[in-house]
Every structure is written in C-alpha cells, then in structure tokens.
Description:
The chain has 13 helices and 14 strands. The chain has about 325 residues and is α/β, with parallel strands linked by helices. It has three domains: about 5-115, Arc Repressor Mutant, subunit A; about 120-195 and about 295-320, Periplasmic binding protein-like II (D-Maltodextrin-Binding Protein, domain 2, 3-Layer(aba) Sandwich), CATH 3.40.190.10; about 200-295, Periplasmic binding protein-like II (D-Maltodextrin-Binding Protein, domain 2, 3-Layer(aba) Sandwich), CATH 3.40.190.
Amino acid sequence: MAILRGVSGFLHQKSPERAITLDMGDAGRHGWDMSITLKQLEAFVWVAQLRSFKGAAERLNTTQPNISARIAMMEEQTDAPLFLRRFGKVELTPQGQELLPWARKVLYARDDFSTHANATRLTEGTLRLGVTEMVVHSFLRNMMGEIRKTFPNLVVELTVEMAAELEKSLAKNQLDLALMNGPFQFQAAGVVLGEYPMVWVASPNLRLDTGEISKETLAMHPILTHARGTWVHQAIASHFQGTAATLVPSSNLAVCQQMAVDGMGIAALPMPMVTREIAQRELILLDHDWHPAPLNFEARFSPDHPSKTVAAVAKIAAQVAKAV
C-alpha cells in the first residue's frame, strides 16, 4: 500500500476497488523511500490539468526538470507510463486516466484534513484570482481581509479585467477563480454572489433631478457606458437607437464614474460602484423608465480544480458579497 507523505503528516489512500502496490525489491532492502509523495501527486494532477509540464512547473513554483523528475518517479513506482509526450503535446495514457481521479481525491483529502484540523493557516501557494471592476469598487477589500484571516499563507495574484476576458482566462486555466457577471459562455462550477442593479447617474451640476427623464433628454448628454462588444453596451445602444445620443464606451468603468462626477456625461453603472458618490452628493440617481438588466455575479472555477481551497475562497466571496 502506498503511503502519501506531505509536509502536514501522512495521508493514507485506500480503495476497495484498486490499491497502488509497489514492489520495493532492492530499494526496500536498502532502505530507500519509494512512497508516492503529495508533491508527486500535485505534479501529476497539474500536468494533467494544464497538459503542460512547463505550465505545471509555473503553477507549483518550481522548475520543469523537477516536475519531470516527479512524474518519472511516479511512473517508475506505478510501473506504467502516465503521459504520452509527442509533437509538443501532453496526453494522459489509459493508466494515467485511471489514476487521475484517485490522485485528486488524495489532494482533496489533504485539504479536508487541514479544514477539519482547523489548520487552514498551513495552506500555502498562489491563488490566481480574477475580478471585474464592480468587485474592486464594492467588496474586494473586505473579501481580501477574510481570505487573509482564513488562509494567512496563501498568496493572491489579482487580475482586474472585463467579464468576457476573465471567462476566457478561466477556460484556459490561466485563473483559478473568477468573480464575474454573466452571461457565461463556458461550463464551470459557480457560487452565486448576488444580483446588482444598474442605475443611471449624473453630476448634480447637470440639473437632471427634475423628475422622470425621457431618453431624448438623456440623449442630449454623452452616454458613458461599458466597452463595445459587451452586452451592456449593446443594450444601451439599442435603447437609444433613433435618438441623437452619443455613446462613449470605455473598458474602464472607474473612468466612466469619474467622468460622470466631473459632469462630462451621464452613466449607467452598477449600484455598488456609486453608493459612496451618491451618499456624498457627487452623483445623483436619475429617474428614467429603463435600465440595463441587473448584473448577476458568480464566483466561478473549474469543477476539476486540484485544490478545495478555491471552492473555500469562493464561499468566502459569497459571504462577503451578501453584505454589499
């Protein structure tokens, strides 16, 4: 029976269906340690996940030769090739496909052990987190504080992008977790964060707080909106079709927000982004009978991610987001 040795102690993986049995031979007689380690299993799972030895090395903060050595040792111990390497591609062998779910179970068991032992402080590594600007301007700060409390040794590598770009990065395994709004194009595990309304805002200096405002009146001012190609931009463009409206798209909603504060146009923005400005009378809500649909946010990640830490952080995000 293989013993899986890691920095936090020992984990034993036992299955009534299949066990990995190692023939120690001369190695056992000479006292060599031929057990499969957690580092070897991590290398195996990440190479399978990314289909790249180089990518696994970058993900595990080590070198490609180290990853190759760990896989070679596993292949020697299991007496079977785990990967096919040809024409620059990496694919699992039938034996590798059979062992992959079991390797994931062992790593999940390690994470469960840390959680139940109240030892999440021992969790190390890098979490590649992607968020949209709405998250930055609403609950990101509080969420990062909660992550630090729960996982003090976890390094969070932050990317701020539009939802469509975050989803592409998630699909390519370039992110571990993405806090983003729909609509979604790719399948992923998701934890609901909440629904955030879109509101029309403008500087009080534009004197538009005179009751219900028609779209023709709004069209007399530049319309500050999301980037071209986003569903919000498309919805606003459709709404103002047939008017003299000038749409000013931007991939940076903070710029739209500041331009609205400066009286350079009106803007449709998520409510959490403008709550403070409205309270301080830097912006006012406009009474218009149409708004873009609310933004539905989820914390999304691969259901096959090798670490349960990602799902745990997604739950932290949901808890913090509810307070917004």
